[in-house]
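Input record, target 12 of the design panel.
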């Protein structure tokens, strides 16, 4: 018996990415029907046998996030009850990740709550990309593969042959990510010291490192309302940076984000298709990179029980 039979399914969160991944692997997406009862409850139907197969379920936690989370959980439950050998939740964007610890009394830790829900639903493994906080992996008691889009972003930036550049982390928490990109590009790093008086609000304090007369490359995991990245770009220009590029893995782009990015002193906004952008930005200022080959190769390696970390060497 072949224990490595594989099937791909997806919810409605990012079907275009799932189709790209399926094309890369060379298998069709499985037949799953996602609909609603008249009262709004989610109705799932798996329309083909999955008995004894390794199922990979692709569903980022993007807007509308609560709907997509429930879809993910119900799909996991349906596949598990249909006797799938394993149900691997492929979550390119892990939602609620910014609530990963208690910063004030009586705060919830919703990143841990989601981990418990995914595990209780019956997931055998989770595959995610560029978590907001790496320690979220420790919230799971099942295997967790953490991918990163940094090599994809690095390869794109290498084509620009930036000779005098600096990779900048917009906050102290993103230094590891910035250092990885800097190492791949052979550039120094700088860090912006900021404070956040309230959620989705940021104030730049100081720039640690030399950015004068250099091309600054900002790298973050998420661009949400774009307040942080725009403030950082303005601070870098004021400090003498020649150009500013902004990169992220997850283009949440909520509220005034697109308007802010269009009017900001940013040469180009580089992001991936981990989640769909509600209103697609127009113009050469926005560049989307596909993570389908990365996720597809990770799925192949997991199914064949090969190393995933070798992808990032």
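The sequence produced for target 12 reads:
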């Amino acid at each position: 018996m072949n224990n490595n039979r594989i099937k791909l399914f997806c919810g409605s969160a990012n079907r275009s990415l799932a189709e790209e991944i399926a094309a890369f692997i060379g298998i069709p997406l499985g037949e799953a029907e996602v609909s609603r009862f008249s009262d709004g409850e989610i109705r799932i139907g798996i329309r083909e046998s999955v008995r004894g197969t390794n199922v990979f379920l692709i569903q980022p936690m993007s807007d509308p996030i609560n709907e997509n989370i429930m879809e993910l959980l119900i799909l996991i439950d349906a596949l598990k009850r249909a006797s799938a050998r394993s149900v691997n939740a492929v979550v390119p964007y892990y939602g609620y990740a910014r609530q990963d610890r208690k910063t004030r009394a009586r705060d919830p830790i919703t990143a841990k709550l989601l981990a418990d829900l995914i595990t209780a639903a019956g997931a055998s493994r989770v595959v995610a990309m560029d978590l907001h906080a790496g320690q979220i992996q420790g919230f799971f008691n099942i295997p967790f593969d953490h991918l990163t889009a940094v090599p994809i972003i690095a390869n794109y930036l290498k084509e620009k042959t930036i000779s005098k550049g600096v990779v900048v982390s917009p906050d102290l928490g993103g230094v590891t990510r910035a250092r990885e990109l800097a190492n791949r590009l052979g550039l120094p790093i700088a860090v912006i010291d900021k404070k956040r008086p309230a959620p989705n609000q940021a104030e730049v304090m100081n720039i640690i490192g030399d950015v004068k007369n250099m091309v600054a490359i900002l790298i973050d995991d998420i661009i949400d309302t774009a307040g942080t990245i725009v403030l950082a770009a303005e601070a870098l220009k004021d400090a003498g940076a020649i150009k500013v590029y902004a990169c992220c893995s997850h283009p949440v782009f909520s509220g005034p984000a697109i308007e802010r990015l269009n009017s900001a002193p940013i040469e180009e906004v580089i992001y991936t298709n981990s989640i769909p952008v509600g209103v697609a930005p127009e113009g050469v200022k926005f560049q989307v990179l596909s993570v389908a080959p990365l996720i597809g190769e990770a799925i192949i390696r997991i199914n064949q029980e090969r190393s995933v970390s070798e992808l990032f060497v």
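The helical segments are 15-25, 65-81, 110-121, 150-158, 175-185, 227-238, 257-263, 292-303.
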